[in-house]
Design brief:
This is ATP synthase subunit I. This protein is mainly α and 126 residues long. It has 4 helices and no strands. It has helices at residues 2-28, 33-66, 76-92, 99-125. Helix 2 runs antiparallel to helix 3 (76-92) and helix 2 (33-66) crosses helix 4 (99-125).
């Protein structure tokens, strides 16, 4: 599980760098503020989503290693509530936050995790 923890940390670092770039874009280009605010909101919710999922995967792996006979879930409802909360926030403040950019922002962390894991695996192999 140490590999998964280090990969989640790498994805978090890259996501924070991207969030800082979005924040600079928000400050530098006032005409695009709703879009960058939506990207910030969606990416933040996607990062929380990814961290929650990694915690659940870690818990299920520990349960499988201990061979307990109990039922366990990935917390699908909780993860959907994270997404729903961000979408509701974007709808509530639709003058200041773009809903489309928020939805796009959800997928940024998941896409980053694919690219970071490929780079991480190639570095580990070498």
């Amino acid at each position: 599980m140490n590999d998964m923890t280090s990969m989640v940390r790498a994805v978090t670092r890259v996501t924070f760098l991207l969030l800082s770039a979005f924040l600079l874009g928000w400050a530098a280009a006032p005409e695009y503020r709703p879009y960058t605010a939506g990207l910030i909101l969606g990416t933040t919710a996607g990062l929380v989503y990814a961290h929650y999922l990694s915690i659940k995967v870690r818990q299920i792996a520990e349960m499988a290693a201990s061979q307990e006979k109990r039922r366990y879930s990935f917390g699908f409802v909780t993860r959907m509530c994270i997404v729903l909360l961000a979408v509701m926030f974007a709808i509530k403040f639709e003058q200041h936050i773009s809903l489309v950019a928020t939805i796009v922002g959800f997928f940024i962390t998941q896409l980053l995790s694919i690219f970071v894991s490929i780079i991480w695996a190639s570095r580990k192999k070498a």
